[in-house]
Amino acid sequence: MGLDTKIGEFDRFIDHLPEEIAESLWFIPVREDKAPDIPEEESLRDEEFRLGLEEARERLEDGKNIGIILRDHFSVLDVIDPEEAEEYLKDLPSTLEVSTRSGKVHRYYLPGDEIEGKDIPNIAELRTGWRCVVAPGSHACDEGGNGWGTYSIESSQDVAELSPNDLPPELTVVEEGGKEEDRIVNERGWRIEKIMEDDEKLDSLLTRNVPPGKGYVDIEEARKDTIRKLLYWEFGPKMVQEAMESYRKYEDFDFDSLFINVLQDFQSNGEDTISDHLDDPDAYRPGSGVGKKVKRKTRRELEEWVSNQNRRVREDGAVPATFASEIALPSGESIEEGSTLFLPPDLVAELQEKEKAGRYIFKCPRCHELHFQEKPYKPSVCQNPNCESNGERTDGKFLKPVHPSDHEERAEALMDNYHFKTVAASLSGTSAAGLTHLYEKGVYDEEEAMGFIRGKVQNMNSKLKLSDQNDVINYISVATQVSEEKFGVSEGKVVLEDRTLDLENDELRPHKPSDLATSKIPIEYDPDAWCPEFLDYLERMVPSEKDRERLQELLGTALVGEKLHKKGAMVVGPTDAGKSTLIKIIRGVFGGRDNVSTQAPSTLADTRWGKAKLRNKLLNSTDEVSAGRLEELATLKRVMDGDPVEAEEKREKTFEFSPTCEHLYAANQTPSASRKDDAFWNRWIVIETPNPVP
Ligand SMILES: [Zn+2]
């Protein structure tokens, strides 16, 4: 599938460079048609897309192309018409040459002094700075998919230095079709490219498809704003015009009259310029990040929240933010306008400051202007003076909320951010909410789901009443119902603290909400772990190797959270044999009360709420079984078989479920002879602890 790239050509090229240059080159991924292989709207200047020397080699070896950003490492003379160019270039120092896919020539130079990019139209072009060339070894075609060829070394010699004096006078800047953005500088000499790194709004106005929409009624408004922005950054009229014509096709408009118009407004309103905002304009360096809108770092942070499957953990203090416009994420995904995400307050504050997101946002249906409000009340009129509504409140539909504004939207927003599941059988026909579980760090937990939802709804809008919260709870309950038997991780998997262990292939993988796990063992898996002290202790307590194996098997089946057999384990021995200690250790290993219930057999037999305690548990284990009352264990048959039983959460309605936990009890010794004839004991794996522990 890969392209016919030639790593050898690349290596020869690198061999001809001074080592420190080779190590510090800035490579980028390039597609087969020579276009940069990065998401649209992204900038090549972003370090994110930069490849180092080794990464670039690897990419070429994989049959993919790379490019080199020239920066101050290289000047490359692109000889478009070798015959015509001959007379201009004959005095230039000879240097390493690369033939391009179409058989033309790239001459590589190390710029001695600062050299500007210049060209002789259709004959030769000198590229520098942020310009880019396809690297030797790449195999590319033209935009139409034709004209395939490999970039290979034509003249194998070291890269020479080039000084501005070497250049022929003809290799100068041309006015026509000049796209040399590096030439566009403001009155302080700051390059527009650098300024755009700091001012995302300007960047977006010049490089993206803004109007109409995105806050602009029409292209005229966008043009005016672009001019205002450039005046703010202290560009002179000629440079304003160049910037607008080079970066965007603001076609067919009368620049002069619009410019004068905006300039007059700008001056009569006494609008600020960048100098007004800098203590010391001379100390400021464009590109340093000052004033940049929604930074890449922020978008990357956002991406973590959006793409990470386990982002839906309870994040204390996370606050809702509704997005006022689409935000493109580094991965190429985007957050849609109107999405509500629960995010860390710092992140929300930053988005709010840039008016990218907020808690209460209303949109004018006429001019689409967004109104960010502090409180959940909608403004009575559109505040855009140019809106055709003319500031009049005309009908009830005016200004629509972008943020979630009814229980359905609030519930949907919560379900977009968090995972919920509700036991279908726990929902009654009418209003009541069911047993709703909240997914957190690998497992669904029922205890805090309700309070969690209430808290989040309150957080969205503190004016809401209890009944509004209930509406959201009910909506989520109904929307997330799943039958009881679907709960629990599927066969052969054990959920651990931060990974899930697949017993079939002994592999660890991240937690998945779709596993519907309800319990996990709070340990990190170490297949090489060994515990000599415990094994030693166990050997003394349970001398029979067979008994120890059976105990291990029972506990092993308990781990996987499904019902694999119908026997319970009974540890029997004299009172001082350390049975309670053994049970305590095992409970601890299983993660304590989250995974182990401690229901006495009599409670299980006699009460519905006792049975309810077995839900989502791996093990039920207690030493509170008196020898005299062993017969009560017989009533546990259904529970131990994993058959459906009726249960009841205290003060809630009853429901049916099938317990999957294993049972481990301790009882004082009964003579093994009498056990032999007793059918009752067939249900039990008997673990003998015959010796008193000193
Ligand atoms: Zn409006």
Automatic annotation (TrEMBL):
<dbReference type="InterPro" id="IPR014015">
    <property type="entry name" value="Helicase_SF3_DNA-vir"/>
</dbReference>
<dbReference type="InterPro" id="IPR014818">
    <property type="entry name" value="Phage/plasmid_primase_P4_C"/>
</dbReference>
<feature type="domain" description="SF3 helicase">
    <location>
        <begin position="546"/>
        <end position="694"/>
    </location>
</feature>
<protein>
    <recommendedName>
        <fullName>SF3 helicase domain-containing protein</fullName>
    </recommendedName>
</protein>
<keyword id="KW-0408">Iron</keyword>
<dbReference type="GO" id="GO:0046872">
    <property type="term" value="F:metal ion binding"/>
</dbReference>
<dbReference type="GO" id="GO:0009055">
    <property type="term" value="F:electron transfer activity"/>
</dbReference>
<feature type="domain" description="Cytochrome c">
    <location>
        <begin position="333"/>
        <end position="480"/>
    </location>
</feature>
<dbReference type="InterPro" id="IPR045455">
    <property type="entry name" value="NrS-1_pol-like_helicase"/>
</dbReference>
<dbReference type="InterPro" id="IPR051620">
    <property type="entry name" value="ORF904-like_C"/>
</dbReference>
<dbReference type="GO" id="GO:0020037">
    <property type="term" value="F:heme binding"/>
</dbReference>
<dbReference type="Pfam" id="PF08706">
    <property type="entry name" value="D5_N"/>
</dbReference>
<dbReference type="GO" id="GO:0016787">
    <property type="term" value="F:hydrolase activity"/>
</dbReference>
<keyword id="KW-0067">ATP-binding</keyword>
<dbReference type="Pfam" id="PF19263">
    <property type="entry name" value="DUF5906"/>
</dbReference>
<dbReference type="InterPro" id="IPR006500">
    <property type="entry name" value="Helicase_put_C_phage/plasmid"/>
</dbReference>
<keyword id="KW-0378">Hydrolase</keyword>
<dbReference type="InterPro" id="IPR027417">
    <property type="entry name" value="P-loop_NTPase"/>
</dbReference>
<keyword id="KW-0479">Metal-binding</keyword>
<dbReference type="GO" id="GO:0005524">
    <property type="term" value="F:ATP binding"/>
</dbReference>
<keyword id="KW-0547">Nucleotide-binding</keyword>
<keyword id="KW-0349">Heme</keyword>
<dbReference type="InterPro" id="IPR009056">
    <property type="entry name" value="Cyt_c-like_dom"/>
</dbReference>
